[in-house]
């Protein structure tokens, strides 16, 4: 038995609906939204004494249930199908005397003006507005005009809909321009009984007299989890808010059948500001044998540690979930723009929402554990916020790492999950969540760095590998000697500062295109210029091009990020690895010098193209992959080198860096670093 229409146009055909209801018989057909789901919303806007019009009633039980529940009795139902009107009259004639059924086209109704307090539409607009063709839109306008005509001022048009973007946009634009108040409710789902994956919405359009010359619009959305409506500024924002809730419903459907092979992520936003407050990742572990107590857990990532490999990468989160021993682990990252009272308040705030992401089969009343590192939410203090035309918005923040160490970081907000620069603080700083000692009577100035920078420590693994590349310079007697080093890309200044401090005769030139970064490095990261350290505010491309016929360097280091996020290479910008420019880099190197490049490229083809170009320019090319990161450090030399000298050079550099009074972490043994270097 074929019930579906052959074309969308048949949805508006009385002949189609007569055939539909003859074939279906007396069995009620509910498109979506059963009465128990709709009842909480209908109770808000339908009063017992209201005169209600139901357009396109079909053989839905909605009117009957409203009548039987005492919500309202004066209900007029209309439909273009004579078949269904006869069926419904027979069904209600003896039991519902105050309710009537009329065959009538909602596009041309016979009712007088201002005759009803409520017009109810369950799926009728969705059936009418199947496309955005001119004729279809004209029918929607005609429908809206008729509804507006028969409604009293202060009356409500309640439209139950799946809220396709073009349907919602059309309805909101029409009625808001007429001066009506528009509110969209999301209907609470009924769990396993829900017919549709997508959520059901109710548009509530309240009629007001149109004020001439007024362009003010009142647009609101009321999500199912809260009664208080949220005001939005435009139709586009309202459509986007609904779309977010539809995507969330699809996500919940996607993870309802574990194990979910791909990690699903979503943002939960602050109700007031609309900005992301929590970022959630759903991680399933098929290898974990399920038991009563290990179905589901929530892991709160300490503030400031969301960029670490274990928490910030898919593989790291998978390892975390497996080691935690839960079939599904929900990781929760906290955002720097938000304030958090503590673990208890986060648990209370999230407990309702996260249970919607629980795996099926979770035992009833199962206690779901909230986990973290050390049982707390970490410490983060934003020290400085600013923006520049070149780097965009950025922040400087202090965070507590693993153990008792504190770190200062520079983050570009256009790529907020990447740490641009990082230094270790020598002493713990009084941060939010910590108590000050009583003897510390002097208050720290908010404009001054809270503690000294540990310049002996390189936080970034790729910086350690870049420094290791200096062992490729000359013979053992050349280290530590006079070194001419060019660093393109300042950031927080950690890399050039380290080279400057640990090579007493090194002369370091730094090129930075953004003057704001020089100010940040100096004020917040302990960077300073002097006789052996000079910063040139210039485009690295132009600076190298001018030097090509002049100076020679022992080492040239590129640590430059790309602002173009559409390219599959975030470091360096593509222009820095084009062959003509690389030839200029080669020209400013001494014969036995080394060019060190930090490469961050997720596009396999682009990466191979970059490596091929480098091979064309530099006879000798080494690569060092940074474990757990996308970074690869490339060491390029303009002339062939004797591989037997590598060990001697590494020992010479290591010895130089271990001079008395110069602390050096044991993990920085450069010979070990170079064991992982491969010759291409």
Question: What distinguishing features does this structure have?
Answer:
elongated; single chain; Rossmann fold; 680 residues; alpha/beta; methyltransferase activity
Task: Output the CATH class name of the largest domain.
Answer: Alpha Beta
Strand content: 15-25%
**What distance lies between the first and last C-alpha atoms, to the nearest angstrom?**
68 Å
* Gross morphology: elongated
Which whole number gives the mean pLDDT? 82
Percent range of helical residues: 25-40%
CATH topology of the largest domain: Rossmann fold
The CATH architecture of the largest domain: 3-Layer(aba) Sandwich
Could you say which structural class the secondary elements and strand pairing correspond to?
alpha/beta
The count of DSSP E runs of length 2 or more, i.e. the number of strands, is 28
Low-confidence stretches: 1-5, 437-450, 652-680
The CATH superfamily of the largest domain turns out to be: Vaccinia Virus protein VP39
User: What does the main sheet amount to?
Assistant: 9 strands, mixed
**Strands side by side in the biggest sheet:** 3-2-1-4-5-7-6-8-9
Any overview of this molecule?
This is eEF1A lysine and N-terminal methyltransferase. GO terms for molecular function: methyltransferase activity. Residues 429-450 are annotated as: Disordered. The protein has 680 residues and is α/β, with parallel strands linked by helices. It has 19 helices and 28 strands. Strand 17 (406-412) and strand 18 form a beta hairpin. The model is unreliable at 1-5, 437-450 and 652-680 (pLDDT under 50).
């Amino acid at each position: 038995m074929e019930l579906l229409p052959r074309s969308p146009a048949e949805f508006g055909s009385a002949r189609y609906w007569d055939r539909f209801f003859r074939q279906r018989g007396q069995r009620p057909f509910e498109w979506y939204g059963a009465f128990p789901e709709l009842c909480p919303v209908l109770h808000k806007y339908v009063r017992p004494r209201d005169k209600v019009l139901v357009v396109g009633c079909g053989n839905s039980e909605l009117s009957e249930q409203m009548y039987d529940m005492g919500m309202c009795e004066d209900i007029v139902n209309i439909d273009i199908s004579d078949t269904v009107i006869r069926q419904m009259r027979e069904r209600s004639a003896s039991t519902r005397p105050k309710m009537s059924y009329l065959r009538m086209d909602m596009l041309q109704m016979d009712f007088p003006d201002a005759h009803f307090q409520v017009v109810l539409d369950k799926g009728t607009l969705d059936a009418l507005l199947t496309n955005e063709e001119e004729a279809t839109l004209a029918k929607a306008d005609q429908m809206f005009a008729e509804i507006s005509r028969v409604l009293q001022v202060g009356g409500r048009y309640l439209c139950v809909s799946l809220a396709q973007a073009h349907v919602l946009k059309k309805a909101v634009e029409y009625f808001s321009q007429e001066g009506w108040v528009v509110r969209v409710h999301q209907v609470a789902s009924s769990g396993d009984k829900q017919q549709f994956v997508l959520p059901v919405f109710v548009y509530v359009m309240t009629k007001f007299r149109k004020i001439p010359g007024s362009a003010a619009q009142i647009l609101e959305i009321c999500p199912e989890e809260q009664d208080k409506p949220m005001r939005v500024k435009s139709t586009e924002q309202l459509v986007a808010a609904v779309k977010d809730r539809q995507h969330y419903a699809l996500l919940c459907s996607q993870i309802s059948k574990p194990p979910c092979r791909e990690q699903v992520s979503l943002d939960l936003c602050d109700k007031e500001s609309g900005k992301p407050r929590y970022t959630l990742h759903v991680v399933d572990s098929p290898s974990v044998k399920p038991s009563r107590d290990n179905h589901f857990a929530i892991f709160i990532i300490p503030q400031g540690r969301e960029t670490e490999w274990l928490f910030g990468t898919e593989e790291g989160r998978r390892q975390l979930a497996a080691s935690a021993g839960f079939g599904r682990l929900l990781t929760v990252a906290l955002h720097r723009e938000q304030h958090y009272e503590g673990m208890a308040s986060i648990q209370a705030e999230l407990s309702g929402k996260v249970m919607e992401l629980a795996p099926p089969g979770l035992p009833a009343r199962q206690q779901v554990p909230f986990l973290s590192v050390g049982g707390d939410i970490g410490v983060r203090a934003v020290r400085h916020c600013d923006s520049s035309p070149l780097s965009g918005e950025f922040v400087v923040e202090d965070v507590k790492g693993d153990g008792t160490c504190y770190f200062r970081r520079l983050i570009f907000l256009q790529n907020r999950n990447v740490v641009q620069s990082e230094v270790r603080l020598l002493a713990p700083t009084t941060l939010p969540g910590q108590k000050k000692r009583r003897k510390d009577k002097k208050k720290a100035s908010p404009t001054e760095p809270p503690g000294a920078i540990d310049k002996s420590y390189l936080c970034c693994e790729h910086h350690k590998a870049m420094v290791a590349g200096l062992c490729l310079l000359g013979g053992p007697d050349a280290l530590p000697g006079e070194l001419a080093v060019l660093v393109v890309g300042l950031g927080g200044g950690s890399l050039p500062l380290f080279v400057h401090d640990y090579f007493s005769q090194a002369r370091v030139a730094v090129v930075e295109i953004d003057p704001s970064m020089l100010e940040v490095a100096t004020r917040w990261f302990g960077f300073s210029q002097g006789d052996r350290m000079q910063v040139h505010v210039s485009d690295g491309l132009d600076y190298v091009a001018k030097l090509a016929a002049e100076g020679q360097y022992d080492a040239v280091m590129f640590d430059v990020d790309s602002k173009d996020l559409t390219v599959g290479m975030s470091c360096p910008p593509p222009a820095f690895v084009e062959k003509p420019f690389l030839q200029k880099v080669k020209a400013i190197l001494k014969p036995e010098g080394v060019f060190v490049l930090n490469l961050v490229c997720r596009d396999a083809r682009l990466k191979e193209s970059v490596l091929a170009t480098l091979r064309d320019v530099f006879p000798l090319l080494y690569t060092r992959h940074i474990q757990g990161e996308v970074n690869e450090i490339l060491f390029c030399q303009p002339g062939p080198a004797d591989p037997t000298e590598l060990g001697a050079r590494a020992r010479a550099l290591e010895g130089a860096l271990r001079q008395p009074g110069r602390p050096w972490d044991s993990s920085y043994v450069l010979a070990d670093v170079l064991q992982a270097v491969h010759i291409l």
